[in-house]
Specification:
Layout (H helix, E strand, L loop, with lengths): L1 H56 L3 H5 L9 E6 L4 E6 L1 H14 L14 E5 L2 E10 L3 E12 L2 E13 L5
Parallel strand pairs: 1-6
Antiparallel strand pairs: 1-2, 3-4, 4-5, 5-6
């Protein structure tokens, strides 16, 4: 009986090691696959932000509004250190009314800023947090933070905060 036990134990040990190795390979493959998916989502988010920015700077109100979530939970805030002002819009209706009025009062397109390359994106399933610094000819140096939500396969803005520093150098 002892003669059979030793090979059986060795066989079980070998099978266990092989199973663990296969399990680790599966985790690596899954990890690589998840990384590829997340990178595709990040690219889609950047494309949505690029489109929304172009639509706003081109003063295309109808196109601009397709980039936003149309819910009461939407928030858009501005802190302007250059002129010590602050504005806050709560809910889609306020955000939409603000931008519609702004475009009516400032109908001429302005140069679209170059999309920044220092973008931080954290994806959480169908939500994402985005932050970056940028510069535009109207307000100067800015930091923008966006809350993104994936709706019907498209990334849309659910929240936006902009800190405007003006034309002074930013640390």
């Amino acid at each position: 009986m002892k003669i059979l036990q030793r090979p059986l134990i060795i066989l079980i040990l070998i099978m266990s090691i092989a199973a663990c190795k296969k399990s680790k390979e599966g985790v690596k493959e899954e990890s690589v696959e998840n990384t590829v998916i997340i990178e595709k989502e990040k690219q889609a988010i950047l494309e949505s932000l690029r489109t929304e920015t172009e639509d706003a700077f081109n003063r295309d109100y109808q196109a601009w509004r397709t980039n936003w979530v149309h819910q009461p939970s939407v928030v858009k805030t501005y802190m302007n250190f250059a002129d010590s002002s602050f504005s806050e819009m709560l809910g889609w209706r306020e955000v939409d009314d603000f931008v519609k009025t702004y475009i009516k009062e400032h109908p001429e397109p302005v140069p679209t800023p170059v999309q920044p390359d220092n973008v931080t994106i954290q994806v959480f399933g169908t939500g994402a947090w985005v932050s970056y610094r940028t510069f535009d000819e109207t307000f100067g140096n800015k930091r923008e933070t966006r809350l993104m939500v994936k709706e019907a396969g498209q990334w849309k803005i659910a929240g936006m905060h902009t800190t405007i520093y003006g034309f002074e150098p930013v640390r």
